[in-house]
Specification:
- By secondary structure, the chain is mostly beta strands.
- The chain has no helices and eleven strands.
- It has strands at residues 3-7, 10-13, 18-25, 32-39, 46-52, 57-60, 68-72, 78-83, 92-100, 115-116, 120-125.
- The strands form two sheets. Strands 2, 4, 5, 6, 9, 10 and 11 form a seven-stranded mixed β-sheet that branches.
- A hairpin with a 5-residue loop joins strand 7 and strand 8 (78-83).
- The mean pLDDT is 96.
Length: 126
């Protein structure tokens, strides 16, 4: 079992950058897939990006492809989400989630992730 802790949210102007971190508290993400989802006010949870540590596979939503990059550290304890060229539409609470045994085609599915963080607010001003 792993505990997931997010950090790095904040307020940034449109066009700016932020880096979110997702840390495995009490263990590592070895063997897990780790994803970022976000929820804007009044909207459903939306898949953002995922990293499958077995094979170092990545997946992105169309809305962030080319602007966001998901990566991990060598110790496999932290997964990062580097967010560049931020837009006001990226404003949301960002959640990190971890799950075991995911296949590539299921990496964007919220139901596949067992462990969730409490979220970190990202606000992009115009």
């Amino acid at each position: 079992q792993v505990q997931v802790v997010e950090s790095g949210g904040g307020l940034v102007q449109a066009g700016g950058s932020l880096r979110l971190s997702c840390t495995a508290s009490g263990g590592t993400f070895r063997g897990y897939s780790v994803a970022w989802f976000r929820q804007a006010p009044g909207k459903e949870h939306e898949f953002v990006a995922a990293f499958r540590l077995t094979g170092d596979n990545t997946r992105y939503s169309d809305s962030v492809k080319g602007r966001f990059t998901i990566s991990r550290d060598n110790a496999k304890t932290t997964v990062y989400l580097q967010m560049n060229s931020l837009e006001t539409e990226d404003t949301a609470v960002y959640y990190c989630a971890a799950g075991r045994g995911l296949i590539l085609s299921s990496m964007a599915l919220r139901s596949q992730y067992t462990y969730w963080g409490k979220g970190t607010q990202v606000t992009v001003s115009s």
